[in-house]
Design brief:
Layout: E1 2-5, H1 15-27, E2 34-38, H2 53-67, E3 71-75, H3 85-91, E4 94-96, E5 100-104, E6 107-111, H4 122-131, H5 134-141, H6 145-158, H7 175-185, E7 189-192, E8 199-205, E9 208-214, E10 221-228, E11 231-238
Parallel strand pairs: 1-2, 2-3, 3-4, 6-7, 7-9
Antiparallel strand pairs: 1-10, 5-6, 8-9, 10-11
The protein binds manganese (II) ion.
Residues 39-40, 77-79, 113, 115, 194 line the site of manganese (II) ion.
Amino acid sequence: MILLISDLHLEEERPDISRAFLHFLQDRAPHAEALYILGDFFEVWIGDDAISPFQRSIARALRQLSDSGTRVYLMHGNRDFMLGKTFCREAGCTLLSDPSVVELSGEKVLLMHGDSLCTQDLSYIKMRRWLRNPLSLFILRNLPLHTRQKLARKLRNESRSQTRMKASDIVDVSPDEVVSVMAAHGVRTLIHGHTHRPATHQLQIDGQPAQRIVLGDWDQQGWALEKDEAGFRLGCFAFSP
Ligand code: MN
């Protein structure tokens, strides 16, 4: 069995989510051959050199899982695209590029965070292209820590006065982009997060049936997608009190 999750937006201010995730690591994840985390694992990440005790405790918990034999894969989201090699080494996980084609129990699947599918948001796509450019990343990583903290605070304050992102605040994917990306990678299944609109969508790629599975964000409840020989199961679960 393989597990896929995304959009936990882990942060110290939401101990309920961290607790639910640590429970998930103890309870469900050890039964999986692999755990895929498809981005926005952390609410904010300003660099591996600025790791907080809270973030380090999460890395340690992930490490325990990978040491026990479950492979852990991590993809960047738009919130935590600065997660780097040092974190991955500490957490015992492998960084996946976005997009990645992988085989999940014999089935070829395209994995993405999902923000790059929202092509209607032109200003965001432009900013994303700038931020993910190797030269910009180099400059960002080498900014003094306090400058990065100030930048992160500014971005955070701008994002709707500290409230959580609801699906209605996030631009949805563009259907044309979905079809063209899936066709370009020759897949019939796409899995992504980002939009906070968990669902399974049936569609057609070159006249063939295909599906797009959207993972859910962890806010009032947790979400996980399970995959085994029988197929995909997308489900939510309550945070234990
Ligand atoms: Mn996102």
